[in-house]
Amino acid sequence: MFRLFSCSGKKSTAVIQLVADESVGATDAPAVTKKKEDTTPWIKRLFGRPLKKKNQDRKEKQSVTTSDDKTTKKTVKKPRWWHFWKKRCKVAPSPEEQPPKEECHSTPQHDKVVELKDQSQKEERPKDDSVPRDQPKKKKKEVPVTNKTLRQQQLHCLGFPNPAQFCYINSCLQSLLTLEDFVRDISQQEQVWSLIPEAAIMRSLADISGSHFSADVRHKTRLLYTFKKAVSLWNPEFEDLHQKDAHEFLTSVLQQVSCLGLQLQVLAPSIDRTYSCPVEDHLVFKMLNTRKCKSCHAESSREEDFTNLSLHLVPGADTVQRLLEGYLMETELEYTCECGATVSGQHSSFTNLPRVLVLHLKRFRFTPTLQLMKDHNPVVLSRELVVPSNQGGGCYSLVSTISHIGATATRGHYICDGVDPDVGQIDPTDRWFTYNDAAVTETSGASVCDRRRRTAYILFYRRQVRGELCHMCTEVRHHGDDVAERDSAPTLLFFTLHTNYG
Prior knowledge:
Elements: H1 42-47, H2 52-62, E1 63-64, E2 73-74, H3 80-89, H4 101-129, H5 147-153, H6 167-178, H7 180-188, H8 190-193, H9 200-210, H10 217-234, H11 246-259, H12 261-267, H13 278-282, E3 285-293, E4 299-306, E5 309-312, H14 320-328, E6 331-334, E7 343-350, E8 356-362, E9 364-366, E10 372-374, E11 384-387, E12 394-405, E13 413-419, E14 431-436, E15 439-444, H15 445-451, E16 456-463, H16 471-478, H17 480-486, H18 488-501
Parallel strand pairs: 5-8
Antiparallel strand pairs: 1-2, 3-4, 3-7, 6-7, 8-16, 9-10, 11-12, 12-13, 12-16, 13-14, 14-15
């Protein structure tokens, strides 16, 4: 129950205090405190909000607890007017309206994670929605990787770098790599030539062939230097970094590989293997030189091995076929016979034919004053070539060329044009590649024959297999009479070839 007290003072005013009686339970009434700390006006305590929670919050802000149950220090009290103006400017929500702290911090973060998962699922759904759920996804067919697809995808990797005037080396290597059978024979006999350290040139050729499709420029540069060093061991003129003649370099490489043949044939039985020289199997051919005295008609013959044939650029012989025929024709030479005559006739003939015939066009010659000059006379490059021999003729197809681009003999640049080995010898697309050091472009055989008339230097002809007949032989067969009247040489070559093929 409540009691009313009256106090006397300067002004007789009645102060109403609510005293909580212990015997009466007033749950709805606010708690009454008699401590001096409570300075809230009585009107606010009667009609304001409950002070229990408010007083507890105020005590927590004003006191600082210490460990070991020590006494608490109270902060300096602020004047009454400060609290009044604070409440006027900002009204805080009641404790019942404030949400719990756990919901404010945990729930929004959990919702964000859920939203991110949903977004990621929505982004992935369009890929899966394109395929029905009932039907399994179709697997992509695996396309087998072949040399043909690699050449199309890695055309830019087929070239070789040119660190220091290596164009004569690069052009020779590209032409040799076009001869796939020749390179394959070198790689397949690695167990034999790896027995001796002198076969470093064959090891370098095999490494370069294996890295032909590589895009690693540094690795290819190291291989080129190793190959050049191996060739220089036998021919020191290639040690420096100056420009060299491509024909001399190619001849040196083939001679070195050929010279190792006899030694390797002796060592091969020690490992139960046999060795066959790739140069002799593919490039070496025999020429028979016959000399006949004009007076007594005495003859003498001599047989020589060749890896390539050098043809003079004779005025009027505008095709490779005519240049070859001129080489085989009889010529006069000064020779003192036993009978006393000084004039004899000499002619050459093929004893056998190689699988690959290398022809060298002599574009560089010395003047009477011993100055080296270049011959720019055009030569029609024959796509097919008919070659007679003592054992029967053969048809050849042009597969590669090495050209010298330059106005003089002392300055210039070597490039190579080669047929794509994957398309075969008879190909309707006529796809060729132009190898200009590291730059490789696609071209055609017809374009090469048209653009290299004045620059062609070395020609590579590959012999056609039995049963394949070149266009020249077909024309001679159908128009034999007309051709015979104009020039009897092709007709004779055709009948020799036809006899050999049976």
